[in-house]
Design a protein that fits this description.
Helix 3 packs parallel to helix 5 and helix 5 packs across helix 9. The radius of gyration is 21 Å and the shape is globular. It has 2 domains: 191 residues, Rossmann fold; 97 residues. The relative contact order is 0.16. The longest helix has 25 residues. It is built from 10 helices and 18 strands. It is an alpha/beta fold.
């Protein structure tokens, strides 16, 4: 078997440097000042109207993060969609579809290839059955979604805090245990933009929140599924004869492996692959006698090559206080309001 691709050493060193203000971070700090200036200029151009923020006919909720890399947004998005559906809100999801091979605007369907629409949008649609559209421009994706599903009441954007072309009504910033790292902007630190910055809600997905805010609970389901829909309890999987190989192509693979071990699974090997790995170059022949275990996100791609792989769903539970606060804010934006009286400086949208 060919060696599995690994993250380059320089990239590992860079990510490690983001946790503290060490020599490498200080070396890159002047570059981060340039990046900060560019971010400030861009925001300023939107504020004065040089760049236009497009207002949709329905409210927009952005779920994003200010830290580079995954922060657990996709499980949060799915939990939010399911909550809104239970409330009777017709919600649609837009995404860039990171890592996809296509460039045009597309609707995500059950038959969509993850390579064409992105693994995360494919998973969101598979889990929630909500309308999902992907495009480089989330504005374009949202207009396409509303044209196809005109009864949509709310657009939820998977990522996009920095996509200022899409005007928004509510912003949710998601953080994991990294918090804001060393507090510096790219490339000296992990921040895409300065923090703190105004948002409506913050949510932590890690075990040890770095600062105050609502905290979600993430845990693996007590079962695994295959491509054909068959299930097995993790307690039963732990006692199968075949050795267990766990692989993950996510931002924090070690967290997934630790969760599996906490469920009592004895893993003969773990394989951390680059985030959004396509699996086309992954050769499983060497592990033909192993039972493969992966995340749901990986399964939407891996199942095309190994339909017998077991995928363990990640369940994200949003705290009651968070949902209560969110619902109150949604009532404000979902309820028809009088004509606008004043202009808000927030990305060009009007406040009543």
């Amino acid at each position: 078997m060919a060696p599995a691709p690994h993250t380059p050493a320089w990239q590992n060193a860079l990510v490690t440097s983001w946790t503290r203000r060490g020599a490498l971070a200080y070396l890159l700090w002047p570059v981060s000042l340039m990046f900060r200036t560019l971010v400030a200029i861009r925001h300023g151009l939107y504020r004065v109207g040089w760049f236009k923020a497009h207002r949709l006919p329905v409210p927009v909720l952005i779920v994003g993060n200010v830290v580079a890399g995954g922060a657990g947004k996709t499980p949060v998005v799915m939990a939010l969609v399911e909550h809104l559906q239970q409330r009777g809100v017709a919600v649609g999801v837009v995404s860039r579809g990171y890592g996809r091979s296509s460039v045009e605007c597309r609707e995500v369907t059950r038959e969509s290839s993850p390579e064409d629409v992105g693994d995360e949008p494919a998973l969101i649609h598979r889990r929630t059955h909500a309308p999902v559209f992907v495009a480089r421009s989330r504005v374009q994706a949202a207009h396409a979604l509303l044209a196809q599903y005109p009864n949509t009441q709310l657009i939820l954007s998977d990522d996009g805090l920095q996509h200022l072309a899409l005007a928004r009504d509510l912003e949710l910033a998601v953080f994991d245990d990294r918090g804001i790292g060393n507090g510096w902007l790219l490339p000296a630190g992990p921040l895409r933009e300065p923090w703190p910055r105004p948002v409506d809600l913050t949510l932590h997905t890690g075990q040890n929140p770095a600062f105050a805010g609502f905290a979600a609970t993430r845990a693996l389901a007590h079962y695994a599924v295959r491509a054909d829909g068959s299930r097995i309890a993790l307690s039963e999987l732990a006692h199968t004869d075949a050795p267990l190989l766990a692989l993950a192509a996510i931002a924090q693979p070690e967290a997934f492996f630790a969760m599996l071990r906490a469920q009592g699974l004895q893993l003969v090997r773990t394989l951390a692959l680059p985030d959004h790995y396509d699996f086309y170059s992954y050769n499983t022949k060497e592990y033909i006698n192993c039972s493969l275990i992966c995340t749901e996100k990986d399964a939407v791609k891996l199942w095309q090559h190994v339909p017998t792989a077991w995928a363990v769903p990640l369940q994200c539970t949003l705290p009651w206080a968070f949902l209560t606060t969110l619902d109150a804010q949604l009532e404000r934006v979902l309820t028809p309001s009088p004509p606008p009286q004043t202009l808000s400086s927030r990305h060009g949208h009007t406040t009543t």
